[in-house]
Amino acid sequence: MTEYDTIVVGVGGMGSATAAHLAERGQDVLGLERYDVPHSMGSSHGLTRIIRKAYYEHPDYVPLLERAYELWDELDATHSTQLLHKTECVVAGPEGSEKVAGARKSAEEHGLEHELLSGAELGERYPGYDLPDEFVAVVEPDGGFLHVEQCVVAHVNAAHRHGAEIHAREGVLDWEPTADGGVRVETAEDSYTADTMVVTAGAWAANLLPMLETEAVPERQVLGWFQPEHPERFQPDSFPVFIVECEVGYFYGFPEYGVPGYKIGKYNHFHEEVDPDDVAEPTPGDERVLRDFTERYFPDAAGPTMRLETCMFTNSPDEHFIIDTLPDHPQVVVGAGFSGHGFKLSSVVGEILADLAIDDESRHDIDLFSLDRF
């Protein structure tokens, strides 16, 4: 039986960052991933994820985002493919929009650079946008996107450079606490022990930690890529990433990058809770909701469909993260329930989870994410 300081279960966005931070601090680390590294079965794929600082979800995220940007810049310097692309970020909606108000609050509270534009002014500056004139937009110059799969690769490479061992295609079947306060982890291939375990299993977290069954709930998402009539209007240097709130929900989108087409998604899509091992492929109905929004607000992007893809959110009841140690097993650290807005913060979440695994506390303020709030 092989022994480690820490076993990380799940090597996607959060787990890869955690393994890297642990290994950089001299820990003997094993990362176990049931799929490939990277893979397209969970929540860390689809080429791009938005990154932004003017956080409408809660102002308390902003200091973590400042640190996340620092860590992404450090990781970018070690990797051959650019990870963070700044395009500006637009958060827009009707006057009184919850998302716009939240973004403004975070920006003002933390002194973040931003400006307010009307829908008409936004369209003049960025011809790919065709929002109603009366819409209000918060435009943040530091916003942009991360190349999601390459972020995972970069963190795994960093973990390897510092001596971590990563096993792909080796899923965890079970675990148990040991008499000496550590953990024993069973896979189909072997059995391992460690002083601590970090669970970053995404949509599968509740399979390992049943207490999360109602606190980390998988939800089906669908992403679409449509070929613009005027591709020059939808390039990273001419088209900011966006979050737009409208009468049928709120949507997020990206410039063309990596594959043909502008990319579009609807937050929470059809609110479908799913078994993560049985997620339906995209349907014409999925495509229709994404195309209807695009035809109304970004009509120049509403050309032929290039690609449709499913992924998953794993939602907590209040849509804030779950980052904590288990009350009955303090040697087990959990990062879960990232609710569709976690990837941008994975660089700093990995740092926090490493803090908890080594020191049982973090240098960062994580009170918002404690398990005892439920």
CATH architecture of the largest domain: 3-Layer(bba) Sandwich
Helix segment tally: 8
Largest sheet: 8 strands, mixed
- Secondary structure: number of strands: 19
CATH topology of the largest domain: FAD/NAD(P)-binding domain
Question: Can you describe this structure?
Answer:
- This protein has 374 residues and is an alpha+beta fold.
- It has 2 domains: 2-44 and 149-214 and 318-373, FAD/NAD(P)-binding domain (3-Layer(bba) Sandwich); 89-140 and 217-315, D-Amino Acid Oxidase, Chain A, domain 2.
- The protein is 25% helix and 29% strand.
- It has helices at 13-24, 61-76, 98-109, 119-125, 148-161, 205-208, 284-297, 346-359; strands at 2-9, 29-32, 48-51, 84-86, 89-93, 115-118, 136-140, 144-147, 165-167, 172-177, 183-187, 191-199, 217-226, 241-246, 249-254, 262-266, 305-315, 322-325, 332-336.
- The strands form 3 sheets. Strands 1, 2, 9, 10, 11, 12, 18 and 19 form an 8-stranded mixed β-sheet that branches. An 8-stranded mixed β-sheet has the order 6-7-5-14-15-16-13-17, with helices on both faces. A 3-stranded antiparallel β-sheet has the order 3-8-4.
- Helix 1 packs across helix 8 (346-359) and helix 2 (61-76) packs across helix 8.
- The longest helix is centred in the first third of the chain and has 16 residues, at 61-76.
- The mean pLDDT is 98.
